[in-house]
Amino acid sequence: MTDLNALSYTEEHEWLDIADGVATIGITDFAAEKLGDVVFVELPEVGTEIAAGTVVGEIESTKSVGELYAPVAGTVVEINDAVVDDPSLVNAAPFEGGWLIKVSIADDAADGLLDRAAYVALTEG
Predict the structure, then answer these.
(1) Sign of dihedral through CA atoms 106, 70, 1, 8?
(2) Which residues have C-beta within 8 Å of that of residue 91, sequence separation ≥ 6?
(3) Is residue 125, in this structure, part of any structural domain at all?
(4) pLDDT of 41-91, one tens digit each?
(5) What is the mean pLDDT of the chain?
(6) Cα separation of 8 and 18, whole Å?
(7) Residue 54 is inside which H or E element, if any?
(8) Which residues pair with 65 in a beta bridge?
């Protein structure tokens, strides 16, 4: 089980697990619940340079279509093919098997991200 307190979060309801200069990125359980049943995920290609705050993908559910924003700048080093093949993983395990992309980042890329307490306050406010 992922330690949710060890993750970083964005106001756009994404989580990041940063280790050794690589950020594993997904959407939070709060976002997955709001989206409803996810039926399609479009992710950037490996090798894509991304800028923080830009749209890098799309998540489609039975309720709506949402854009996936890059929470940090860097280079996409891996995408979760399992989620592309089975988008329901985003709902079933948003912090485990439902991660979306891995990005090689600069050391200061996590500046300005939220901790768990700040994210919970945001979603309960």
Answers:
(1) positive
(2) 32, 33, 35, 37, 38, 98
(3) no
(4) 999 999 999 999 999 999 999 989 989 999 999 999 999 999 999 999 999
(5) 93
(6) 8
(7) none
(8) 60
Range of the domain at 80: 4-104
Token reading at 112: 């300005």
CATH number at residue 90: 2.40.50.100
CB count within 10 Å of CB 63 equals 12
Cβ contacts of 96 within 8 Å, gap of 6 or more = 1, 2
CB 51 within 8 A of CB 73: yes
Number of structural domains the chain divides into: 1
Exposure on the CB side of residue 57, measured as CA atoms within 13 A = 26
Do the Cβ atoms of 70 and 95 come closer than 8 Å?
A: no
Q: How many Cα atoms within 13 Å fall on the side-chain side of residue 22?
A: 8
